[in-house]
Amino acid sequence: CFVGFGLSGNHENLYLGNVLYVVVNATALFTYAQEFKSEKTMEKFKNFLPPVTLARRDGKFIEVAAESLVVGDVVEVKAGEKIPADLRVVEASKLKVDNSSLTGESEPVSLAPEYTDDNPLETKNLAFFGTLAVEGTGTGVVINTGDRTMFGRIAALAGAAKQEVTTLQREVHHFVVIISAIALVMGLLFLILGLVRSFPILSNVMSCIGIIVANIPEGLLATVTVSLTLAAKRMARRKFLVKKLECIETLGSTTTICSDKTGTLTQNRMTVVHLLYDNEIYNTKTTTTEATFDLSHPAMKALFFLACNCAKATFDAKDMEEFPEKSIEERKINGDASEAGILRFASQIEDVMEIRRLNRNVGGIPFNSTNKFMVTIHEDPSGAGIKRLLMKGAPERILSRCSQYMTGQGVKPLDQEALDVINVKLLSLLNGGERVLGFAQTLLPNPPFDSSFVFDSENPNFPMESLTFVGSMALLDPPKGAVSEAVLTYQTAGIQVIMVTGDHPATAKAIAKQVHIIRDPTVEDVAKQRGIHVDAVDRSGVRAIVVPGSEIINFDQEDWDRVLRQDQIVFARTSPQQKIIIVESCQRLDKIVAVTGDGVNDSPALKKANIGVSMGISGSDVSKEAADMVLLDDNFASIVHAIGEGRIIFDNLKKSIAYTLVKNDAQAFPFLVSSLFLFHFP
Question: Are 309 and 390 a contacting pair, CB within 8 Å?
Fold first, then answer.
């Protein structure tokens, strides 16, 4: 347009050129503003660095800046503090660390000086920078700082992950190249035609430029931007924040969703899901099951009493004072994840704090990793002076101290036959990836255990054998309410949902079955059903597979092709590097991959995917910055609506482009007539 104005002096060309210049620059500035925030991923990792920590200096522990730590420093950590660097634990007193941002496990990990596994994320003697100490105290030696820590490596992976070109960018670029080539060819042809017919040079050049400009859809960029902006506004009303506009259409083209488990598919909250008493397993009420237990059953009554009293978790007093209207599920709890789950379950039945008040605690033994059980002793509210000893812990440790068990018909001897039946039930719960706690009790007579008796927790002076086994509670981080229906909707729409988690394979498999990611038996299930070895199973007819990260290490391209041909896939115990490899392998097979996640360990895969979707409530700042979209309400099912918007966008853009091309034909027609028939328009 500016060239035309320079040649002819026609002010219409000048006006048109200025308008187009403003439109292009305004669109470019808008796109820049939309994408500016997404480039700050690395900065968010700084939030994981505590400002100060206790380090040994001149034989004494003093506060120092965490960023000043070097390899070899000795530091001390306690409950509520972030780990200031990667540490090798040399002393630990009931130290538990929340590694969920790294591994996806909801349950805090107990740490100790002993080396227990070749995998750094599995061994008990390593604590990682940025994780949170939730219980106990410990001392460790700094082994890595800064970029060399586990979090630092994840940050480097997130920063190095190349942003994939979206399908919309690819298609629009392809369309622009074609239409530009057509415009240039037509312009040159008619320029040559004008020269052959001896048209005036200026008029001929103007006709050539007019034909080129008329064929180029200069309004396409504005049309695409407006369409995407309107879609983003509609998605925002559904609590779906779009950070990169062009990714809306990509989501509509998605063929595979690689989803994290903890906090994305599940609630990231340990919940009692099964009860075992009187040699039967019963369900509790969750988002996917209805309660089947009977509170009037004698064994269930005793199990409930034990759950209320043999515990130390409590509702946070300050939280309840400030937010008295909070539901039991939303209340803050002081205590570990398993006890918090039991407290929530029991509090929905009766007032646990009132039950504890009536059954005063007079002694006991705290839980420790050596015994793997805890003991509490309570006064009986009847006033007869009788005391009740309660024990909770690992089922095998509890059963080893029991000589009888409770049934609906009274207490029976715990012989080998009864023990075998209980162990079969326990094994079925453990194979489902659930954390199982056993409960037992006995009465302490008066005398000798009267009101003046002093219970010694260091050197127990009370009986802890010949107890009565009451039952067990099994806990799991359960799926969110609408996840299973959403997964079925995706599958109906032709989208494959793959679970990619750092959690244990058994836990991942159990959740995958509940949310319909796995619907058919795996090779291991078939082998168990038929009573044969896994290697003897014909894998050609098996459609579901669970792949642990330890196997991925040795995968070649043929192995990836074999695994990704399966219809139902779960990857468990995966590292951040392996998550990137999984995404890349899917993309190599021409799949459009969306990744959903909420943890720091998900950020590299979120960045690498065709489209990354982070959780807005439970998601870390790092995952939100790495993602292209954010689910503000953490509702996995919201992606269904976003995919629908993406598919609508594609249809709308096709219509807009068709309109643009028809309009351009009308603009080009006068120039064609002028060149072909020697007719000049005023």
Answer: yes
**Residues ≥6 apart with Cβ < 8 Å to 240:** 629, 630, 631, 632, 638, 639, 641, 642
Task: State the helix-helix crossing angle for 220-236 and 11-36, rounded to 10 degrees.
Answer: 30
Cα dihedral 510, 514, 515, 518, rounded to 10, equals 60
Query: pLDDT band at 681, cuts 50/70/90?
Result: very low
448 preceded by cis ω (within 30°)? yes
Do 220 and 657 touch, CB atoms closer than 8 A?
A: yes
* Residue 564: its H or E element: helix 557-564
| pLDDT over threshold 60, residue 45 | no
* Structure token pair of residue 671: 């120039």
- In 3D, which of 273, 275, 283, 272 has the Cα closest to residue 303? 275
Contact 211, 186 (CB under 8 A): yes
CA distance 76 to 468: 41
CA distance linking residue 281 with residue 436, whole number of Å? 12
- The SS3 of residue 211 is helix
Q: What mean pLDDT is predicted for residues 534-544?
A: 86
Two tokens at 428? Answer: 């079925």
The lowest-confidence range among 289-293, 355-359, 456-460 is: 456-460
The residue type found at 668 is: A
Confidence of residue 42 (pLDDT cuts 50, 70, 90): very low
Q: Which residues are CB-neighbours of 263 under 8 A, at least 6 positions away? A: 100, 598, 599, 615, 618, 619, 634
Of the candidates 225, 243, 258, 247, the one whose C-alpha atom is nearest the C-alpha of residue 167 is 247
DSSP for residue 262 = T
pLDDT in tens, 357-395: 999 999 999 887 678 899 999 998 876 778 999 999 999
Give the helix/strand (H/E) hosting 191: helix 167-196
Amino acid at 113: P
DSSP string, 151-186: HHHHHHHHHHSPPPPPHHHHHHHHHHHHHHHHHHHH
**Nearest of 361, 368, 459 to residue 136 by alpha carbon:** 368
State phi, psi for 136 to the nearest 5 degrees: 80, -170
Active site residues: 260
Angle at 517 between CA 257 and CA 260, to 5 degrees: 50
Tokens of 332: 């803050």
Question: Within 13 Å, how many C-alpha atoms sit on residue 170's CB side?
Answer: 10
pLDDT value, residue 8 = 59
State the SS3 of 416-439: HHHHHHHHHHHHHHHHCCCEEEEE
Write the secondary structure of 105-159 as one string of H (helix), E (strand) and C (coil): CCCCEECCCCCCCCCCCCCCCEECCCCEEEEEEEEEEEEECHHHCHHHHHHHHHH
Could you tell me the CA-to-CA distances from 56 to 70, 75, 676 in Å, in that order?
12, 6, 90
For residue 37, pLDDT over 50 is answered with no
Please tell me the distance from the alpha carbon of residue 300 to that of residue 322, in angstroms, as a whole number: 34
Of 359, 386, 363, nearest in space to 448 by CA? 386
Write the pLDDT tens digit of every residue in 81-123. Answer: 889 999 999 999 888 898 877 776 667 888 999 998 888 888 8
Distance CA 17, CA 37 (A): 32
Q: How confident is the model at residue 3 (pLDDT cuts 50, 70, 90)?
A: low
Q: Given this model, what pLDDT does residue 672 score?
A: 65
Q: How far is CA 134 from the centre of its chain?
A: 20
